[in-house]
Amino acid sequence: MNRLLLYLSVLVFMLSAGCGQDTAQQADNTLTIAMIAKSSTNPVFLSARTGAEAAAKELAAQHDINIVIDWRTPPTEDGQVQAQRIAQAVNEGADVLLISCSDAAKVTGAINDAVDRGVPVMTFDSDAPDSKRFAFYGVDDIKTGQLVMEELAQAMDGKGQVAILAGNQNAPNLRKRVEGVMQTAEQHADISIVGTFYHIETPQDAAAEVVRVNNAYPEINGWAMVGGWALFTQTLLTDLDPSKMKVVSVDALPPELPYVEQGIVPVLWAQPTYLWGYESVRLIVDKVHLNKDIPVINPMELVRVSKENLGAWAMQLRDWGFTDVPEKYLQ
Amino acid sequence: MFRTLLNSQQAGLLFVILLIGTILSLSAGTHVDRVTGGIINNFLNSYTLMQTATDASFFVIMAVGATVVIISGGIDLSVGSIYALAGVMTAMLLRAVGPDSSFMTVVLAFGMCAGIGVLCGLLNGAMVVGLRVHPFIVTLGTMWIFRGIAFVSSSAESILVPPALTDVVKWSIGTDALYPMPFIIMLIITLMGALYLSRTVMGRHIFAIGGNVEASRYAGLRINRILIGVYVISGLTAGIAAFVGSSYYGSASCADATGYELYVIASAVVGGASLRGGRGSAINAMLGATLIVLIRQSIRTLHLDQNYEWIIIGCAIIMAVVLDQLNQHWTTRWLTKKA
Q1: How far is CA B296 from CA B62, B123, B207, B238, in A?
Q2: Long-range CB contacts (within 8 A, 24+) of A203-209
Q3: Fold match between A27-138+273-300 and A141-270+304-330?
Q4: Inter-chain residue contact B253 with A105, CB threshold 8 Å
Q5: How many CB pairs under 8 A join A and B?
Q6: Are B107 and B94 in contact (CB under 8 A)?
Q7: Chain B residue closest to A86 (CA)?
Q8: CA–CA separation, A148 vs A289, rounded Å?
Q9: pTM
Q10: Would you write out chain B's pLDDT as a tens digit for each of its 339 residues?
């Protein structure tokens, strides 16, 4: 039985080698952008995907081309898997790659191979500066860390003990944000950093880390969060007392808005994550389709979200395709 | 002999691999190659096939060692962490001493990765034998310990390895971006594993222990020494995989190979290794790993929703093992009837 099946499959495989060549796809005016974010379970990258798809639709109509966003993001952060997916995308005919690097050192070789094979690469959110990528779009991470700490210092009246929630220790962009937080903290004589705490980048792991650290260091009265993971849960709404604890965080997605409303988080520094996708696709079309010169570094501006502009920000999120914006903020 | 080969379990796995390959070749579509201008199949092209083999090679190298452990009736959950520790320590050493000669760099890196793998395996084996604790628990503990050491010693930094290593492991055929070295190393390790298990006394002893440890003891086998040996082999293959992986990707970090232990064990089991011990094969482990990587590849090539990746791989692993069991059952019945 095995023998027959084996003969049969070898025969069909050999035939398929010939058949495959005949079903040639038209090399038409389709621009396929393989998008490889850090993790498909992180909502910020899902909003980036929404932005990329929206830009693809708009620009396709504008320039009379077909733009396809080929989503190839791994489920969990893994630089090695990202490198493999870069190679896969190139092998399968992607025209351009758009990537947020989980581990810049790991993917640099794969990016360079792609460019050598004629596939331009752009990075967003987390760069691979030593690679042959043609452009990067994202925030200035050191500045982001500085802004977080500056706001936190103000909220704490310039004194107290601060913990830093730092996410994945391998991500170069997060390490830079931590550096920015440290730099600004040093300028405040009455503020000290009790530690930098890394964790798996899931909301539950992040929230659990906050609770663990708070129990271990009862003197903490401020959290500088370089990413919003912990605030994607609702548990800290009851676990953190706004009269004793202040938090300033990067990101301002729908689940984080109640923290601003309740005063636990006076300020969120929002990365317009939708624009990671939207602006990157626009830059790619400018560079690859329209042959325009674009800058290598394209800075993304942060948006300051507080009680004052909570409603306006909520509406912006809804317009960007977020379906989980609480209705009360949209009134 | 050819007839025996075709009726073997390898033939069944090879059939499934070729079947998936056929489906992918027929369904993948084509694209225009940027360099040559020719039309090439999205799956059936040298780049994709080589890249699939490369992706599989890291799992296969580790799976050969894991299969040896599984045959002995044990399990090694720490292989991913040994991979990370060996890679990180080697990268740090090379950064600190940085030999001038490329040859010395490669020799030192390989020796360091293999040496750390052997040491970790020795520790695993010694604890399994000495503490008389189930290997699942021992290697679960060392899985965290080894990764923790890698984390603390590297400060979670991704450390670049010298270009000399990348030049060797990423040696290309001609000017093309085709890198066959991981595939070649994978074949060598698989062949060595197969010969070790089937053609050496030590290999036969491992099967004997996995089949019936008490009978082996009464037969005078040195159980403890053999058990320590199997964990050393598992550590060694994880160290070699770390050498190949960190050299290929150009860096090492403490997060490398996170979760790989499950893929490695799955590769061995899909390849027909019995978790009860006494059964398994290095070549089947290679085919098992190739099958898993091919399933992952097919999700991308067929443009299936990637959110279903884990579900598809999980179902495929269960199906592969159930089909293998049914195949064995039917074969046994058929042979009984024939007799």
Answers
A1: 18, 34, 31, 22
A2: A203/A229, A203/A230, A203/A232, A203/A233, A203/A255, A204/A233, A205/A229, A206/A165, A206/A167, A206/A230, A206/A232, A206/A233, A207/A233, A207/A235, A207/A236, A207/A239, A209/A165
A3: yes
A4: yes
A5: 159
A6: no
A7: B51
A8: 38
A9: 0.80
A10: 555 655 566 788 888 899 999 998 998 888 887 777 788 888 888 888 998 999 899 999 999 999 999 999 999 999 999 999 999 999 999 999 877 788 999 999 999 999 999 999 999 999 999 999 999 999 999 999 999 999 889 877 788 899 999 999 988 877 677 899 999 999 999 999 999 999 999 999 999 999 999 999 999 999 999 999 999 999 999 999 999 999 999 889 888 998 899 999 999 998 888 888 998 999 999 999 999 999 888 887 887 777 777 888 888 888 877 877 787 778 778 878 877
Nearest residue of B to residue A200, measured between CA atoms = B255
Mark yes or no for CB contact B177/A116 under 8 Å.
yes
Check if CATH label 3.40.50.1010 holds for domain A27-138+273-300.
no
The answer to whether the beta carbons of residues A226 and A254 sit under 8 Å apart is no
Q: Can you name the residues that pair with B41 across neighbouring β-strands?
A: B30
Tokens of A314: 């909520």
DSSP B308: G
d(CA A280, CA A52): 7
3-state class (DSSP) for residue B247: helix
The pLDDT-based confidence of A294 (bands split at 50, 70, 90) is: very high
Nearest Cα residue in chain A from B47: A91
| Cβ atoms of residues A131 and A99 within 8 Å | no
Nearest chain B Cα distance for residue A169, angstroms = 6
Q: Which of B11, B259, B307 sits opposite A3 (nearest CB)?
A: B11
Strand partners, A270: A303
Average confidence (pLDDT) over A39-66: 90
A304 close to A236: Cβ distance less than 8 angstroms: no
Interchain proximity B249–A73, CB inside 8 Å: no
> Would you call B255 and A93 a contact, using CB atoms and an 8 Å cutoff?
no
Nearest by CB: B6 against A6, A110, A172: A6
Which chain A residues are closer than 8 Å to B18 by Cβ?
Answer: 6, 9-10, 12-13
Query: What are the chain A neighbours of B156 within 8 Å (beta carbons)?
Result: 169-170, 198
Confidence check on the interface: ipTM exceeds 0.85, yes or no: no
pLDDT in tens, A15-28: 544 444 444 444 56
Kindly report, residue by residue over A115-155, the tens digit of the pLDDT: 999 999 999 999 999 999 999 999 999 999 999 999 999 99
Give how far B75 is from chain A: nearest CA, Å.
25
- A24 vs B30, B245, B248: nearest CB: B30
CA nearest to A26 within chain B: B31
CATH code: domain A141-270+304-330 is 3.40.50.2300
Chain B residue nearest residue A113, CA to CA = B177
| Cβ pair B31:A92 closer than 8 A | yes
CA distance A124 to A37: 8
Sketch the domain layout of chain B as residue ranges. Answer: 56-258
> What are the structural domain ranges in chain A?
27-138+273-300, 141-270+304-330
Q: Do B32 and A116 touch (CB under 8 A)?
A: no
A216, two tokens: 């271990």
